[in-house]
Amino acid sequence: MTSQQPLFDRAGFVSSEALAEAEAAPAGQPRLRCAVRDQVIMYYEALDALIPPEHAARSIWAYVSQLDLSPLLAQIKAVEGHEGRPPADPRILLTLWLYATVEGIGSARELARLCETDAAYQWIAGGVPLNHHTLSDFRADQGPLLDRLLTQSVASLMAAGVVDLNRVAQDGMRVRASAGGKTFRRRAKLEEYLAAAREQVERLKAEGNDDPAAGQRRIQAARRRAAQEREARVAEALQQLEKIEAQKPASKRESARASTTDSEARFMKMADGGFRPAFNVQYATDTKTQVIVGVDATNVGSDKGEMGRMHQQIQQRYGRVPDEYLADGDFATKSDVETLAAAGTTAYTPPRQSKNQKQPPEAPRPDESEVLNAWRARMATPEGQAIYRERAATAECVNAQARNRGLRQIPLRGLIKARTVALWYALAHNLMRTFRLCPQLVTS
């Protein structure tokens, strides 16, 4: 369009000549705002602004901040006026693992990564650098502390009138162990492994004494430690094998096997019908509130006898026994039913049909005590069956929530550490229940 060409005609419309000239003009390159990713950008943001005031991480931190962690502080060697690198605040580590358990995070490496990338974990860490070794060691070593915190938290709910232990339900679940099925060996193979491990340890010691180079000595020391740990695992497997053999008849002792990875793990029948190395995690739950009041872990695939042991644990924790106790038929033993009745607890667990008895299991037996006959009659009534059905709605529900939070495999090895993992899940579960039932106990 020339400079003399008018843009509008006398009627105020764009002239046809100007429109034709504009359409014929060559199109230029589009002007865009493109990404420049090598530029340096600075952000100024307080850590406290990363999460909202009602975030669950703040509530868990408030709960942990009011706990007495003096036993953990007493173990710290870095004190005022003396040398030593200060460790991370135990309150940070405890809060991180409780929040991670609630969120279904069970890996120490994943938790360490989240402390650098996720806002909630960054807020909890508060700028304290953490690695997966520190996080993993803390989780594995806090069994006694978690056991004490579980008792104190439930006792606080009992004092507030929230939990009354009127009716308690128990259920167990098999949780996969950190041991492969191919790590289980018979006695002959374990003794062969132990001899080879000891020979390797002695050979590495001799090589370390003959090598003058400091760098090579460090490498040899690392290899020697690995060989010694392997020797210790095989020796522990042989010790556990003796216990397994003692429980089997003489004709089947040769088939006994123990794992060189986790010697306390046992093959158990899982929910899908298969057999894999696992631990048997037991939870006892207050039916009114779904608060876990008892925790245990065993390496026995059967639940028989666990009702009496859990009942005793509850009595030791809180100084009283439940009025009514609900358990699956796999838990029922005559001695446990009588023991609970002697302590003042009414058992609601279905009696099993005996192989050599043609009469129904609810029928009275002349050779049994009045307590057992009353138990059989009680479970035949509609009222008894209605009470027993609460077990599935409470104890099994709690176990399902634990699985949804990641309790599908024990990430640590050994029976003591398996129980510690179960305690982490129990305490995290109770915290979430307390936030709903009595939030002032954890936020005051």
CATH architecture descriptor text of the largest domain: 2-Layer Sandwich
Can you give the helix content as a percent range?
40-55%
Order of helices and strands: HHHHHHHHEEHHEEEEHEHEHHHHH
Oligomer: single chain
Task: Describe the protein.
The protein has 444 residues and is α/β, with parallel strands linked by helices. The chain folds into three domains: 50-140, no CATH class; 143-179 and 266-443, Nucleotidyltransferase, domain 5, CATH 3.30.420.10; 181-259. The chain is built from 17 helices and eight strands. It has helices at 16-24, 56-65, 70-74, 90-102, 108-117, 119-125, 132-141, 143-159, 187-210, 214-246, 306-318, 334-343, 370-380, 382-388, 390-404, 415-437, 440-443; strands at 167-176, 184-185, 258-259, 266-269, 275-286, 291-298, 324-327, 346-348. Strands 1, 4, 5, 6, 7 and 8 form a six-stranded mixed sheet that branches. A hairpin with a 4-residue loop joins β5 (275-286) and β6. α5 (108-117) packs across α6, α5 packs across α7 and α9 packs antiparallel against α10. The longest helix has 33 residues, at 214-246. It is globular. The termini are far apart. The mean pLDDT is 86.
Structural descriptors:
globular; Nucleotidyltransferase, domain 5; single chain; two-stranded antiparallel ribbon; 6-stranded mixed beta sheet; 444 residues; alpha/beta
Secondary structure layout:
Layout: H1 16-24, H2 56-65, H3 70-74, H4 90-102, H5 108-117, H6 119-125, H7 132-141, H8 143-159, E1 167-176, E2 184-185, H9 187-210, H10 214-246, E3 258-259, E4 266-269, E5 275-286, E6 291-298, H11 306-318, E7 324-327, H12 334-343, E8 346-348, H13 370-380, H14 382-388, H15 390-404, H16 415-437, H17 440-443
Parallel strand pairs: 1-7, 7-8
Antiparallel strand pairs: 1-5, 2-3, 4-5, 5-6
